[in-house]
Amino acid sequence: MTLVEYHINSFMRRNPFGVDICCRKGSRSPLQELYNPIQLELSNTAILHQMRRDQVTDTCRANSAMSRKRRVLTPNDLKHLVVDEDHELIYCYVPKVACTNWKRLMMVLSGRGKYSDPMEIPANEAHVSANLKTLNQYSIPEINHRLKSYMKFLFVREPFERLVSAYRNKFTQKYNTSFHKRYGTKIIRRQRKNATQEALRKGDDVKFEEFVAYLIDPHTQREEPFNEHWQTVYSLCHPCHIHYDLVGKYETLEEDSNYVLRLAGVSGYLKFPTYAKSTRTTDEMTTEFFQNISAEHQTQLYEVYKLDFLMFNYSVPNYLKLD
Fold this sequence. Notes:
Elements: H1 3-13, H2 30-35, H3 43-62, H4 64-67, E1 81-84, E2 89-92, H5 99-110, H6 123-126, E3 133-134, H7 140-149, E4 151-156, H8 159-171, H9 177-191, H10 197-202, H11 208-216, H12 218-223, H13 233-237, E5 246-249, H14 253-263, H15 283-290, H16 295-311
Parallel strand pairs: 2-4, 4-5
Antiparallel strand pairs: 1-2, 1-3
Helix pairs in contact: 1-3, 8-15, 9-11, 11-16
Subcellular location: Golgi apparatus membrane
Family: Belongs to the sulfotransferase 2 family.
Keywords: Carbohydrate metabolism, Glycoprotein, Golgi apparatus, Membrane, Signal-anchor, Transferase, Transmembrane, Transmembrane helix
């Protein structure tokens, strides 16, 4: 038996749904397409995603004390899971991981013809909660049914690159005054000695070092949950409690996104929007931001995001000087 044949057999054995997934509207569901692909040329992609699923499962098991602190999910835990009834999809959105474009796609998919081109949907409209249905809006039996029979997916990104992207977007752009007032003033008050009255009032010049100090401050974590833009993926999407069928990556965004659309049976008319953002946060940029962070603070910050690194198979960055 070849290695590929072994992986395919292993993959089919681990299919939790068997071959009898109930077909919807006379067609195959995304779960059937994923776990029992008709076209075997998809098998390499299927194996890749099986390996990503296994990585999540293994990390949850190895870190069970840390990852399963709360065993019962509340409706509030499910507010990031967007539901598309027509195509039987559940998408957990993670800010700073192409979530605007994925919300646009979900509006097209679940809009029943109201939208056709995702890029014609303004970004601010994609973030209006009333435009998408989330799992916390259903009854408990309805939630359980959808978690069991819909294809669940999320997209992840190298944790520190995502963090720098969130910092750049929320604290270095002049238009983000709500973040400056809500978080910037608090960070400056706590982390900056001899802050000017203007800085305390505006909160619009937070340094990255101050942002990191705020994140690792035990007082911050006791006070309230992190904002969703810098919250860990495992706290936003609960992958140790919810079995995700697909883990897409920002690094292979287009390929993984179009695979989801193919499984949903819509790739004939819908593609993931492609455009190169010149302002995108890169690995080189992230390296620069971390140069001024002490080894002690880097170590403490890594501990905060450690599960995301392990769960989604991101190695410890070369630029880190861990204690």
